[in-house]
Amino acid sequence: MISGKLARVFEDEELVNRIKTRLPYLFQLAELESSRAGKIGMEVGSLRERIIVALLIYKFGEANVETEIPVTEPEVDVNLFGEPVSIKTITGKGFSGVKLIWTVDAQKAREFRETYYPHCDIVLIQINWNDFGAFYYIPLKAQKRVFDGVSREGYIKLPKPGTNPRGVEITKEALSSLVRDEMSHVIKIHWQKKKIDYNPYKRWEDYWRDDWK
Question: Which of 98, 65, 120 is nearest to 173 (CA)?
Fold first, then answer.
């Protein structure tokens, strides 16, 4: 039996199948929605997050999913039954580039590393188009165990001096340990794109066209 509220997702066979078949389609829509001239904009991250939050609302009910998170909680994206959850996505086969916080301030990045300790569950989506990726649940207990085992420097990767990166990351080695941890859970997903006839302006045009007050 899997413990924890969020982990109930992995016990729901029907929902697991829905995730396998629908998540690639919904993430493809998010990419189309945020693309311009063939390039995907940074806003795709917010759209992906909303898709996962909607999944949690579908599973657990709107009353149990709090989405109005204060800006003072930079890593928390949603509260599930009052417990904080961070939603993260990564593209490709590897496990590098997952942000703990987004900042371009080197001093803030160093301060973050000196004070950080895992404090919320993680939902990690590994997107790997035309191949296999996954939907991971990484419990807080697993994060604390890995963090304590590899040390602060082994868990947190600071931006390189002189560069203009967008945040502080979990090291590739630490994240690889997290997804393999015995307490973590995974749904394997085949990320197959479909032919979608999609116009991102159509629904807004319909609002202008429709008669309403």
Answer: 98
Prediction pTM value:
0.91
Segment 24-44 shows an average pLDDT of 91
- CA gap 152, 142 in Å, rounded: 15
* Backbone φ/ψ region at 92: left (φ over 0), alpha (ψ -120 to 50), beta: left
Is the CA virtual torsion 9, 11, 14, 19 positive or negative? Answer: positive
Buried residues in 74-86 as b, exposed as e (16+ CB within 10 A): bbbbbbbeeebbb
Please check whether residue 165 is in contact with residue 104, taking contact to mean a CB–CB distance below 8 angstroms. yes
Q: Map out the domains of the chain with their CATH numbers.
A: 7-194 (3.40.600.30)
pLDDT value at 52 more than 60: yes
pLDDT in tens, 85-118: 999 999 998 888 899 988 777 888 888 899 999 9
Order of strands across the sheet with 78-80? 65-66, 78-80, 83-91, 121-127, 132-138, 185-190
